[in-house]
Amino acid sequence: MVRKNEREHSRFETADVALALATHTYNITSNPKIFNQIHYRMIGRLTGEATMIYQKVRVANEIKANTIEDAKERLKLQKDALEYCKALTSDIMISKGLFHLRTRKVIFWNGYVTRLETMIKAWMDSDKKGYKEKSWDVS
């Protein structure tokens, strides 16, 4: 029996975490006591990046890599999701000072992003291993 913390994450769980991140981002940024609407552009960036992460992960998850072109598209979407994770992390850190967020809140929020990045990277590694077994060059 494999311990829970030693199991690989499924791609479906990755989509669930991406959805949870997007939902958390919308919930936290909709609090007018913390997120002043004067900074609506930053709020839009935060929610937009979280939404794009979820969309990229979900679409990548729906692609069946039956051809090398499909595999390349799936890998591109996974890479895009990682880029959005980096952007969201940066904007969360900017928001910490801009909105005077508590460190505990930032750590929790960034924890979602970090966990998701780790899951996407593991998913990509797993896919690349499968593509290599098919002798596909997707780099």
What would you say this structure looks like, in words?
The chain is mainly α and 139 residues long. The chain has one domain (10-130): Up-down Bundle (de novo design (two linked rop proteins)), CATH 1.20.1440. Helix content is 75%, strand content 0%. It has four helices and no strands. It has helices spanning 11-29, 40-62, 68-98, 103-133. Helix 2 runs antiparallel to helix 3. The radius of gyration is 17 Å and the shape is elongated.
Report a brief summary of the structure:
By secondary structure, the chain is mainly α. It is 75% helix and 0% strand. It has a single domain, classed as 23S rRNA-intervening sequence (de novo design (two linked rop proteins)).
Q: Please, how many domains?
A: 1
How many strands, which pairing sense, and closed or not: the largest β-sheet?
none
* CATH superfamily annotation: 23S rRNA-intervening sequence
Instruction: Write down how many β-strands occur, each being a DSSP E stretch of 2 or more residues.
Output: 0
What portion of residues is helical?
over 70%
Q: Tell me, what's the shape?
A: elongated
Order of helices and strands: HHHH
**What is the C-alpha radius of gyration, as a whole number of Å?**
17 Å
Q: Roughly how many Å apart are the termini?
A: 35 Å
Q: Could you report the average pLDDT, rounded to the nearest whole number?
A: 90
Strand content: under 5%
The CATH architecture comes to Up-down Bundle
Structural class: mainly alpha
